[in-house]
């Protein structure tokens, strides 16, 4: 019994149909707890007022935007090395979710930035690198959409994902050349003493967990429908041949 | 490799279009900027290095689909893939031919066009150096993009959507070198990083491009 057994689409479908309701349920529950707790039962920040509550959408979505790309990278590598179709389809399913997360992070950031910094947008390194990440997602999605043959598309997008990752990291550090910017540094990390204050931290953890589970559920759903779409197409092709 | 390089260069110069077209495009972009921004020289000279880099980048982008398209259509590419020359070498040669026919003329012309934008006098040298160092990366990354979109009907637009994000680091460091050269600041760090990108892409990207080309010709 190894993890690779689930590279078999039938086994994957069977397992994922069992896991999916749990992921949905837990995800929605966590998000509900995190958001309600965060929005209604935490005090206002003494400097930022109630705008601080955007953090419950902004931070988790930004986190997932980067991790979705990372997951696509791992899935692409697995596809290129071991040729498991489920992996390629999971990468394909993760891209639209990742793009949505990037957009949420950018938009909530703009809404937060307007009252705090007095501007919707600045060319700050962090903001810029997120916009660049968005462009990379667009290119990846466009390549998937542009190629007809699914295996060729999977191969090409995987290589683009790997090359793109290198250039995305390069861009991330290249934009640091301009200035330090307005955006604060990382306020959540495991190895630092100083984090966000506990009142904000605990609901934030729930909301992050909710985003992770929702991402997981959406990717599973996307992968499942891709598999079933391919099956339907194979069946209709076979029907035409007869 | 030499024979292929000579052949590509001859084709680019004789078969019309490609060679001068990128230069003309570059000229037009640079002329359009003052028309859009306004003719104040102090604003123009301020944005000159960035605009020149952007123009060179777009002109380079314009000619990318020619790298493989013609050879793909008439079957030459299949012969090249099956030839004893490794595909990586073919790609390096193609990128080199593109660099000589497109990027190098842009580098030569850029200081001339800089006059139109009123680039400060101490900027010419650094602009030329930054373009010279950065343009190989533009050609190599472009070759990768051209290989990716080979044989697609709507390849042109897709090519730019794919390639432009990959150009970001080169653009940032290149424009930074030119800008710092004008300001009289230390250029060493961005210059080294720019050279690093060019040499790094020369070392690694041909492998990715040839993998992509093999997939596309399967």
What does this entry look like structurally?
The complex is a heterodimer of chains A (242) and B (218). Chain A is 76% helix and 0% strand. Chain A is mainly alpha-helical and 242 residues long. Chain A has one domain (19-179, 198-241): Four Helix Bundle (Hemerythrin (Met), subunit A). In chain A, helix 3 (85-117) runs antiparallel to helix 6 (198-241). Chain B has one domain (2-216). In chain B, helix 3 runs parallel beside helix 7, helix 6 (87-116) packs across helix 9 and helix 7 (123-148) runs parallel beside helix 9 (188-216). The two termini of chain B are 23 Å apart. At the A-B interface, helix 4 and helix 5 of A face helix 8 and helix 9 of B.
Which helices and strands, and how do they pair?
The complex is a heterodimer of chains A (242) and B (218).
Chain A lengths: L8 H32 L14 H28 L2 H33 L7 H22 L3 H25 L23 H44 L1
Helix pairs in contact in A: 1-6, 2-3, 2-5, 2-6, 3-4, 3-6, 4-5
Chain B lengths: L1 H13 L3 H20 L3 H22 L3 H8 L2 H7 L4 H30 L6 H26 L6 H29 L4 H29 L2
Helices and strands of chain A, in order, run as HHHHHH
Task: Indicate the percent of residues in helices of chain A.
Answer: over 70%
- Average pLDDT of chain B works out at 88
Report the principal-axis shape of chain A.
Answer: globular
- Kindly state the number of beta strands of chain B: 0
Uncertain stretches of 5 or more adjacent residues of chain A: none
Terminal-residue CA separation of chain B: 23 Å
Helix content of chain B: over 70%
- The CATH class of chain A is Mainly Alpha
Oligomeric state of the chains? heterodimer
| Overall mean confidence score, pLDDT of chain A | 86
Overall radius of gyration of chain B: 18 Å
Low-confidence stretches of chain B: none
């Amino acid at each position: 019994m190894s993890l690779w057994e689930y590279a078999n689409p039938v086994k994957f479908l069977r397992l994922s149909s069992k896991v999916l309701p749990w992921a949905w349920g837990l995800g929605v529950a966590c998000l509900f707890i995190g958001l309600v707790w965060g929005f209604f039962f935490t005090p206002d920040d003494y400097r930022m007022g109630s705008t601080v509550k955007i953090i419950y959408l902004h931070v988790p979505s930004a986190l997932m935007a980067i991790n979705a790309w990372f997951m696509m990278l791992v899935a692409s590598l697995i596809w290129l090395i071991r040729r498991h179709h489920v992996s390629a389809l999971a990468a394909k399913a993760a891209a639209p979710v990742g793009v949505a997360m990037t957009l949420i992070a950018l938009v909530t950031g703009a809404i937060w930035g307007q009252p705090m910094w007095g501007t919707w947008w600045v060319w700050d390194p962090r903001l810029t690198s997120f916009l660049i990440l968005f462009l990379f997602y667009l290119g990846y999605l466009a390549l998937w959409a542009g190629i007809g043959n699914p295996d060729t598309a999977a191969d090409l997008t995987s290589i683009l994902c790997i090359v793109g990752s290198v250039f995305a990291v390069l861009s991330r550090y290249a934009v640091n050349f301009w200035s330090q910017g307005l955006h604060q540094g990382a306020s959540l990390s495991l190895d630092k003493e100083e984090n966000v204050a506990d009142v904000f931290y605990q609901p934030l953890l729930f909301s992050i967990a909710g985003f992770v589970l929702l991402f997981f559920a959406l990717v599973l759903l996307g992968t499942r429908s891709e598999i079933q779409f391919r099956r339907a197409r194979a069946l209709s092709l076979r029907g035409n041949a007869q | 490799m030499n024979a292929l390089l000579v052949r590509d260069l001859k084709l680019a110069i004789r078969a019309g279009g490609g060679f001068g077209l990128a230069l003309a495009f570059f000229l037009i972009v640079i002329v359009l900027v003052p028309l859009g921004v306004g003719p104040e020289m102090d604003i123009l000279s301020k944005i000159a290095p960035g605009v020149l880099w952007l123009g060179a980048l777009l002109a380079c982008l314009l000619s990318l689909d020619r790298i493989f398209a013609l050879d793909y259509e008439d079957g030459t590419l299949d012969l090249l893939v099956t030839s004893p020359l490794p595909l990586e070498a073919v790609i390096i040669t193609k990128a080199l031919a593109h660099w000589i026919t497109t990027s190098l003329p842009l580098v030569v012309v850029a200081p001339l066009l800089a006059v139109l934008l009123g680039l400060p006098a101490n900027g010419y040298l650094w602009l030329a150096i930054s373009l010279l160092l950065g343009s190989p990366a533009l050609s190599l990354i472009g070759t990768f993009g051209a290989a990716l979109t080979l044989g697609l009907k709507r390849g042109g637009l897709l090519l730019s959507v794919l390639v432009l994000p990959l150009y970001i680091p080169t653009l940032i460091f290149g424009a930074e070198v030119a800008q710092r050269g004008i300001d009289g600041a230390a250029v060493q760090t961005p210059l080294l990083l720019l050279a690093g990108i060019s040499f790094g892409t020369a070392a690694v990207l041909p492998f990715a491009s040839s993998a992509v080309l093999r997939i596309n010709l399967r």
